[in-house]
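Weekly modeling sync, notes
Attendees: S.R. (lead), two postdocs, one rotation student

Agenda item 3: backlog of single-chain predictions. S.R. asked that every request posted to the team notebook include the full sequence so nobody has to chase files. The rotation student volunteered to paste the first one in as an example of the format we agreed on. Action items at the bottom.

Example entry:
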Amino acid sequence: MTKKRTNDPWIPADEYGRRLPKFSVNLIVADVARAVAFYRDVLGAKAVYADVDFAAMDIAGLEFMLHADHTYDQHPWHARLLNTPQRGLGAELRLFGVSPDEVEGRAKQHGARLLAACTDKPHGWREVIVEDPDGYAWAVGVPTKKELPQRH
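Predicted structure, as returned to the notebook:
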């Protein structure tokens, strides 16, 4: 694994790894700083820690990671990753409890790609789908109010 950081991270990698939940998300990105800016400015995430190699992010209590391409240079699919024009195709990351209308507004303000504008869906969500700079799709939503049947 190639690292470009010159200082020590905020927590040793093995300590961080052992405290991760049973399921976590790790996105491999071309540019960590660009990705952090998208997640902060569009999705309202907080960078718990970020450097040129790695970022630990939090959106509404959902922790996830970003790793730079160069940190995966020993991974079996590294060469394929670098030759893939769009990442994340076929996977949709779903985040419940964040206002899709606010995300859509920030996406427009920051020039992020909207895959689907805000709409109320039959599955009970009001959602928007935005794409991060590396092509990962995020469906962000809140519950819709259940309409009660009309009495006659």
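Discussion: group reviewed the output briefly. The longest strand covers residues 113-120.
Action items: rotation student to repeat for the remaining queue; S.R. to check formatting next week.
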